[in-house]
Design brief:
single chain, 493 residues, Rossmann fold, 5 domains, 6-stranded mixed beta sheet, 17 helices, globular, binds S-adenosylmethionine
Length: 493
């Protein structure tokens, strides 16, 4: 059934690479808060065991098994199991599915599956076709997946939903409610509780009791049920009910902000519900209890919440809706073809734009290193751009771009690191929100550069060479975010 040339044999022993850093899938899970310090991690197909060693050094309990490098280790059932870049080296389709099933059988809470994607493999695709992949010049087998193909395969073999974590990486949760909670939390924005406007005796006296309540309401946008706070008993003793306790909070804080928080939380929930349409919506009774309560608090009924979410989702089908949302966005750099945003500003945009980006994220997961998001206006496409020097370089160069088309689901990746004349950014304040700590610094530099006429040749300054020429012409140079005159260390203005 396999094999363009049956005389060829794939060499598994050579597939394990030596890692100098924790692998991407495990890093991803740590960033997503899925590896608590006490977690037990089992690395199925651990190669030479570099990830296991690193995890142990970081304070996790971890072990691993590998048919080539650690055949005698025990396979332990564990809270988290990592199947990292294993399935793409197995040329036999049945064995590949079996490895996935074995790893899943060991996972008590979470399985992380990763595989190399087609975008990484273009350079190798000339080597030699073998089975459903390629035989490399070293004699190893590599199957390069498409993002969606990997998901379909996992879901078809395991019969559970896979959640995209990042390109080429999926999470498979044992518990359906944990999965829904994880996905919903992705679309819940982080907000600090409103500040106090004046001190009030009752509030000050019971602040310790009230703070968890304020924290809860700022996270969920609604009052908690009695069983949702650890200190409910103490609050009830003083105030009689959580509602009354919160009235005290309202009296001493900016009450308008609490309304905004409620509004934002209900929008977050809508974005989550709209996007959950793609993977089959969880029936109300199987949603985590806290989400069921959110739905009731904001929409009264699940059917109503879903209908509103669907309306929002279907509205994206009209190109005008996205284009209008881009044009009206108070944040982001608008060009004729796209709106560009720093990832930290995404939460500040309208539900339409969050949903638009969410469609891409729901497909790809988080794109590591990407910090600028390009929402295309003319076609249903989202790009994740990586500017590693965004914070420190006043005009950071583009390192890579990952683009996904939301109708064809084609993913393209482009590397700019070896280009001699990379695209660069200007007016960095436009990409971030006004609350960004460096907003003022970025805006000041833009004013000065504009005043010096540096932005006149808009066609050329978008690339390193043209920008360096413009600077050289004026006799100015940049140190950090300061513009200096050559010949003397005069700061401008
Ligand atoms: C590319 S390496 C990845 C190693 C490690 N997980 C990492 O990310 O560094 C692929 C590994 O899969 C192992 N492997 C091959 N067939 C396997 C199977 N059927 N079950 C489990 N592991 C397998 C190989 O021995 C090899 O160590």
């Amino acid at each position: 059934m396999f094999g363009t040339d049956s005389r060829l044999q794939a060499n598994r022993a050579l597939t394990a690479i030596s890692r100098t850093d924790l692998s991407r899938p495990l890093k991803c899970a740590i960033v997503d808060g899925l590896l608590g310090k006490g977690s037990y991690v089992f690395d199925y197909g651990c190669g030479r065991g570099d990830d296991v060693r690193r995890l142990v050094a970081m304070g996790y309990r971890a072990s691993g098994w590998d048919p080539v490098h650690r055949p005698d280790s025990e396979c332990n059932r564990s809270s988290v199991v990592n199947l990292g870049y294993v399935v793409n080296v197995i040329e036999d389709a049945q064995e590949r599915s079996e490895a996935l099933r074995q790893a899943w059988a060991l996972a008590e809470d979470l399985l992380i599956v990763s595989a190399r994607l087609g975008l990484d493999g273009r350079a190798l695709q000339g080597t030699c076709a073998f089975a459903d992949g390629w035989l490399t010049s070293r004699g190893t087998f590599q199957k390069f997946y498409e993002q969606q193909e990997l998901r379909h395969w996992i879901e078809q073999v395991l019969r559970v939903n896979a959640v995209p974590a990042a390109p080429g990486i999926y999470y498979i949760f044992r518990d359906e409610q944990t999965r829904s909670d994880f996905v919903a939390a992705r679309y819940r924005r982080r907000r600090a509780a409103p500040r106090l406007t004046k001190s009030e005796a009752l509030f000050t006296a019971h602040r310790d009791h009230l703070e968890p309540l304020m924290q809860f309401v700022s996270e969920r946008g609604r009052l908690p049920f009695d069983d949702e706070l650890s200190n409910t008993r103490a609050i009830l003793d003083v105030f009689g009910s959580l509602r009354r306790a919160f009235r005290t909070v309202l009296a001493v804080t900016e009450s308008e902000r609490w309304n905004e928080i409620k509004q934002e939380r209900s929008q977050d929930l809508l974005v989550y519900l709209a996007l959950s349409q793609f993977e089959g919506r969880t029936p109300f009774g199987r949603l985590p209890l806290s989400l069921q309560r959110d739905v009731k608090a904001f929409f009264g009924a699940y059917t109503r919440a879903c209908a509103t979410a669907d309306e929002l989702l279907f509205s994206l089908g009209s190109p005008d809706v996205v284009d209008t949302a881009c044009r009206q966005s108070p944040i982001g750099k608008l060009t004729p073809s796209a709106l560009y945003l720093h990832e930290s500003a995404l939460a500040e945009t309208s539900p339409v734009l969050r949903l638009y980006e969410g469609c891409a994220r729901g497909y790809l997961g988080r794109v590591e290193g990407a910090n600028i998001i390009k929402l295309h206006r003319g076609e249903p496409t989202v790009s994740y751009l990586s500017y590693p020097e965004f914070d420190r370089n006043p005009h950071p160069p583009l390192a890579s771009a990952l683009t996904v088309h939301l109708q064809t689901f084609r993913v393209r990746w482009r590397d700019y690191t070896s280009s001699g004349n990379r695209p660069i950014l200007h007016r960095k304040e436009l990409f971030v929100s006004r609350d960004h700590p460096a907003y003022g610094k970025f805006a000041r530099l833009t004013r000065i550069e504009e005043g010096k006429g540096l932005y006149r040749d808009t066609n050329r300054i978008g690339f390193e060479a043209g920008w360096n020429e413009a600077l050289a012409r004026t006799g100015l140079y940049l140190r950090g975010h300061r513009l200096l005159a050559r010949g003397g260390l005069r700061s401008i203005p």
